[in-house]
Amino acid sequence: PRTSSGAIFGLFGSFWSVVFQNWETLDRKCQTMTQLVVLTALNLGIGMLPFVDNFAHMGGLCAGLLCGTVFVFHRKRYQMLSPRSRALAARLRLPRHTGDR
Description:
By secondary structure, the chain is an all-alpha fold. The protein contains 5 helices and no strands. Helix 1 (5-21) packs antiparallel against helix 2 and helix 1 (5-21) runs parallel beside helix 3. It starts with a helix and ends in a 9-residue tail after the last helix.
Protein backbone atom coordinates (compact mmCIF):
# COMPACT_ATOMS: atom_id res chain seq x y z
CA PRO A 1 0.00 0.00 0.00
CA ARG A 2 1.24 3.46 -0.90
CA THR A 3 0.49 6.43 1.26
CA SER A 4 1.32 10.11 1.27
CA SER A 5 2.47 10.32 4.88
CA GLY A 6 6.10 10.97 3.89
CA ALA A 7 4.98 13.90 1.76
CA ILE A 8 2.86 15.25 4.60
CA PHE A 9 5.90 15.13 6.86
CA GLY A 10 7.80 16.96 4.13
CA LEU A 11 5.28 19.77 4.52
CA PHE A 12 5.80 19.72 8.29
CA GLY A 13 9.55 20.00 7.68
CA SER A 14 9.10 22.97 5.39
CA PHE A 15 6.85 24.66 7.98
CA TRP A 16 9.57 24.13 10.59
CA SER A 17 12.03 25.74 8.19
CA VAL A 18 9.77 28.77 7.74
CA VAL A 19 9.49 29.15 11.51
CA PHE A 20 13.26 28.89 12.04
CA GLN A 21 14.18 31.29 9.23
CA ASN A 22 11.54 33.93 9.98
CA TRP A 23 11.42 33.74 13.76
CA GLU A 24 12.00 37.47 14.28
CA THR A 25 9.17 38.49 11.97
CA LEU A 26 6.57 35.89 13.05
CA ASP A 27 3.38 36.93 14.77
CA ARG A 28 1.93 34.62 17.44
CA LYS A 29 5.15 32.69 18.00
CA CYS A 30 3.83 30.65 20.90
CA GLN A 31 0.72 29.56 18.99
CA THR A 32 2.75 28.62 15.92
CA MET A 33 5.28 26.60 17.92
CA THR A 34 2.56 24.85 19.92
CA GLN A 35 0.71 23.83 16.77
CA LEU A 36 3.85 22.54 15.05
CA VAL A 37 5.08 20.61 18.08
CA VAL A 38 1.68 19.03 18.75
CA LEU A 39 1.02 18.09 15.11
CA THR A 40 4.52 16.70 14.56
CA ALA A 41 4.51 14.74 17.83
CA LEU A 42 1.00 13.41 17.22
CA ASN A 43 1.88 12.19 13.74
CA LEU A 44 5.15 10.65 14.92
CA GLY A 45 3.13 8.90 17.65
CA ILE A 46 0.76 7.54 15.02
CA GLY A 47 3.87 6.26 13.25
CA MET A 48 4.49 3.92 16.18
CA LEU A 49 1.39 1.90 15.28
CA PRO A 50 1.95 -1.47 13.59
CA PHE A 51 2.31 -1.49 9.80
CA VAL A 52 3.14 2.23 9.62
CA ASP A 53 6.48 3.17 8.09
CA ASN A 54 8.04 5.72 10.43
CA PHE A 55 11.18 5.80 8.25
CA ALA A 56 9.12 7.44 5.52
CA HIS A 57 7.91 10.00 8.06
CA MET A 58 11.43 10.84 9.20
CA GLY A 59 12.72 10.93 5.63
CA GLY A 60 9.94 13.29 4.60
CA LEU A 61 10.59 15.52 7.63
CA CYS A 62 14.32 15.72 6.87
CA ALA A 63 13.73 16.33 3.16
CA GLY A 64 11.18 19.05 3.95
CA LEU A 65 13.61 20.76 6.33
CA LEU A 66 16.36 20.63 3.74
CA CYS A 67 14.22 21.87 0.85
CA GLY A 68 12.59 24.50 3.02
CA THR A 69 15.98 25.80 4.13
CA VAL A 70 17.06 26.16 0.51
CA PHE A 71 13.88 27.53 -1.06
CA VAL A 72 11.99 29.47 1.66
CA PHE A 73 12.05 33.27 1.72
CA HIS A 74 13.86 34.99 4.55
CA ARG A 75 11.72 38.10 4.94
CA LYS A 76 14.35 40.51 6.29
CA ARG A 77 16.99 39.66 3.71
CA TYR A 78 14.46 39.68 0.89
CA GLN A 79 13.22 43.15 1.86
CA MET A 80 16.79 44.50 1.87
CA LEU A 81 17.23 43.69 -1.83
CA SER A 82 16.46 46.30 -4.46
CA PRO A 83 13.14 45.90 -6.30
CA ARG A 84 14.97 44.94 -9.50
CA SER A 85 16.99 42.26 -7.67
CA ARG A 86 13.82 40.92 -6.02
CA ALA A 87 12.09 40.61 -9.38
CA LEU A 88 15.08 38.79 -10.88
CA ALA A 89 15.38 36.46 -7.87
CA ALA A 90 11.66 35.71 -8.01
CA ARG A 91 11.85 34.86 -11.71
CA LEU A 92 14.90 32.65 -11.32
CA ARG A 93 13.94 31.23 -7.90
CA LEU A 94 17.41 32.00 -6.59
CA PRO A 95 18.28 31.99 -2.89
CA ARG A 96 17.88 35.47 -1.46
CA HIS A 97 21.35 36.45 -0.16
CA THR A 98 22.39 39.99 0.67
CA GLY A 99 25.95 39.36 1.73
CA ASP A 100 25.36 40.77 5.22
CA ARG A 101 26.90 37.77 6.98
